[in-house]
Amino acid sequence: VQVKIADDGEILVKGPNVMMGYYKKPDLTAEVIDAEGWFHTGDIGLFEEGKYLKITDRKKEIFKTSGGKYIAPQLIENKLKESMFIEQVMVVGENQKFASALIVPAFAFIKDWCEKKGYQCGTNEETISNPEVKKRINLEVDKVNANLAQFETIKRFELMPRDWTIERGEMTPKLSLKRKVIFESNKDLIDKIYNSAQMML
Q1: Quick one: 132 and 170 in the same domain?
Q2: What is the CATH number of the domain that holds 37?
Q3: Per residue in 74-105, pLDDT tens?
Q4: What is the full DSSP assignment across the chain?
Q5: Which residue of 8, 36, 115, 138 lies most exposed, with the fewest beta carbons within 10 A?
Q6: Are 100 and 157 contacting, i.e. CB atoms less than 8 angstroms apart?
Q7: Pairing mode, strands 39-48 and 52-58
């Protein structure tokens, strides 16, 4: 089987083990198999060490910036969630000049950290308003940014006052983000990120 990565990061495969198409459905077949016979998997990936194929995202999750660069948000989100200070995160930036993030802090961990440091972190709202908390999470973002391409880096972020949940319709039963729901319910906050950036230019 042959495998290659398309310009937008999608994994393409070709070979005798790949289906020839959908039975009596040429339109559907044309959507997934191109003129050169490559099957478009819908997965985003990369080759590590030149030989190991790693799937990093689903194509439907990726977005394009106004500069024409494709960003796979899940890869960045997973890196950010490795931090003890970050519970949940959603990367945004479709049709914008840069990527930003909505971050749900790991409140239990951070409040314990605040107590040890002598910082005021009572309610969740007080916690996300604390400049020391913002500064500490910014350090975590900077660590991840250091290993990303320039166009992928998180330039701005906003802290959220509560977790996203299945009950509120923000997460799937598999605990994946319902991006459209979260985006729509936080549209004003996202607009604020990009409008304030525009004012600074």
Answers
A1: yes
A2: 2.30.38.10
A3: 889 999 999 999 999 999 999 999 999 999 99
A4: -EEEE-TTSEEEEESTTS----TT-HHHHHHHB-TT--EEEEEEEEEETTTEEEEEEEGGG-EE-TTS-EE-HHHHHHHHTTSTTEEEEEEE-TTSSSEEEEEEE-HHHHHHHHHHHT----SHHHHHH-HHHHHHHHHHHHHHHTTS-GGGSEEEEEE-SS---TTTTSB-TT--B-HHHHHHHTHHHHHHHHHHHHHH-
A5: 36
A6: yes
A7: antiparallel
Domain-terminating residue out of 15, 30, 60? 60
Tokens of residue 145, six digits: 């940014």
Residues 166-174: what's their mean pLDDT? 92
Please write the tens of the pLDDT for every residue from 114-131.
Answer: 999 999 888 999 999 999
Instruction: Tokens for 144, please give them.
Output: 């991840």
Q: Is 83 exposed, middle or buried (0-12, 13-18, 19+ CB in 10 A)?
A: buried
Q: What is the pLDDT of residue 62?
A: 81
pTM, two decimals, is: 0.74
- Same structural domain for residues 186 and 89? yes
Same domain, 74 and 102: yes
